[in-house]
Amino acid sequence: MLSIMLLAAPGFFPHHASAETGDKLQKISRFIEVQQSISKIPGLSVVLVEKGETILQQGFGLADVQSKKPVTSETLFEIGSTTKAFTALAILQLEEQGLLHRSDDVSAYIPWMKLSYKGEQQPITLNHLLHHTSGIPYSSIGRIPETNAADALEATVKTLLEKPLNRLPGSSYEYATINYDVLGLIIENVSKMPYDEYVKQYILEPLEMTDTYVGLHQLNESHLTKMAVGYKIGFMKPRVLKSPVYRGNIPAGYLVTNGEDIAKWLKLQAGGKESSAFNPAILRASHTPDETVKPLAPDSYYAAGWIVENRNGVSYISHAGENPNFSSYIVLKPDEQVGIAVLANMNSTFPTAIGEGVMRIWEDQEGAPDHSDFYLTFDRILTVVNIVIICLGISGIIAIAVMCKKVASRKRKWTRPTRARTVIFNLFTLLVAAIVIMTPQLSLGGLPLPVIKVWAPVSVAVTLYSALAVLIIAWICRVFFLFTRNIRKP
Fold first, then answer.
1. Is the pTM of this model over 0.70?
2. Mind telling me which residue stretches traverse the membrane in this protein (predicted)?
3. Most buried among 48, 105, 146, 280, using CB within 10 Å?
């Protein structure tokens, strides 16, 4: 097994490695393998660092199911919203240079960005964006354009002009991924550099993260050979998903990296290794939570691209990331300079459970409790629902075919319905029309159907279309029942 090979590799463990460490790592490996099987995630890359040393850097499963290509430390993954910490660090760098201030109004850097709440224009600061207290709603993710154009970031931010804020800035927390796209555009305007080039030059290169890319457009053909295939769950199996390109959402969720490079990021963030390019003060600032609003959960607040949580007097810093076909989780324990990263090639919340479980095992606790992924559970339910819908649809089609045959053979004839039947038919038609029109808008938090098709399990869209088809079949059946009747034999 790869884990045994790593245990034997010279120089892989720091000088304090011991038999106890080896036992923990084998327990961690077994835990991950079990969780991976339950989650149905094809491939994982897991990294554990402590005090500036890489303790575990291991691939599990497959980067490509079809070709049976295994995950290695060089396999590339999109990391989703754990990208936000890179964007936040760039903002703090620029503030350190005196080029901006987090307390400034966004309009100082994007003059045309003027947003309103209840008809009144509101000041939004960079801190509001960093802490998700801007008043921009979560549902704004549904308007991010699918494009790989060079001006995609500005186009994405301009979608905010279409809708009002849903709360006063600074009044409360609501996670909205597009907050960090606005910060990305500010970085561009202040630095006079494209966002991706700024992050590459001033964050990735100083950390020697040479195999990390700020968006898929930075990958050439040789890089793409190391890219994991992305999947999403569908009818209880991982299905390949070629996700649309959201280049305007890169600052919020589309950094691409691997196990080797994410270990360098963990060491910096956990405090195990300093870099002359980063003032420790700005790292501490990025880990400082906004306690001016209600907590996300007891003793849990949002900082700058991180969630800071106090558990029994111990501070943990973490963030999860989910893209349509990738997911990730990073958790830090700064007091002991421990950092853990889990990268996955399927949209799932299991990386969070795995990361938390690895941390608990490393702390000599039991692994994470049983975890339930919403998409996985929802997909199981919809798989059963689809079987029922298909049966109903087949029954309806058979009923329509039988009645058509009867009409053709003159055993059943068209007739004018009574007034009562006409009223019932009209009400039923209105009900079917309302369901057909409103269901996409009401599904999954009010997100539009194209977004649901990209993000949700395959079974969601199939169920939606199947259910609408059955409603139409039911309407046709109703037409036959109301407007035809059997011909009585003399």
1. yes
2. 381-402, 423-442, 454-481
3. 48
pLDDT at residue 355 tops 50: yes
Closest CA to 135 of 156, 151, 120, 145: 120
Rg (CA), the chain: 27
Q: Classify residue 147 by burial, with Cβ atoms within 10 Å: 0-12, 13-18, 19+.
A: middle
Residue 399: pLDDT band with limits 50, 70, 90? very high
Q: Is 65 helix (H, G, I), strand (E, B) or coil?
A: coil
Quote the pLDDT of residue 8.
34
Distance CA 355, CA 319 (A): 10
309's enclosing H/E stretch is strand 307-311
Which residue spans of the chain are classified as CATH 3.40.710.10? 2-371
Phi, psi of 64 (to 5 degrees): -145, 110
Q: Where does 2-371 sit in CATH, by number?
A: 3.40.710.10
SS3 assignment, position 351: helix
Backbone torsions φ then ψ of 346, nearest 5 degrees: -155, 145
Predicted confidence (pLDDT) at residue 108 exceeds the cutoff of 90: yes
Task: Say which residues have a Cβ less than 8 Å from residue 278's Cβ, sequence separation at least 6.
Answer: 89, 93, 206, 268
b or e along 42-74 (b: 16 or more beta carbons within 10 Å of the residue's beta carbon)? bbbbbbbbbeebbbbbbbbbbbbbeeebebbbe
Q: Which residues 6+ apart lie within 8 Å of 423 measured at CB? A: none
Cα→Cα distances 327→89, 337, 355, Å: 21, 24, 12
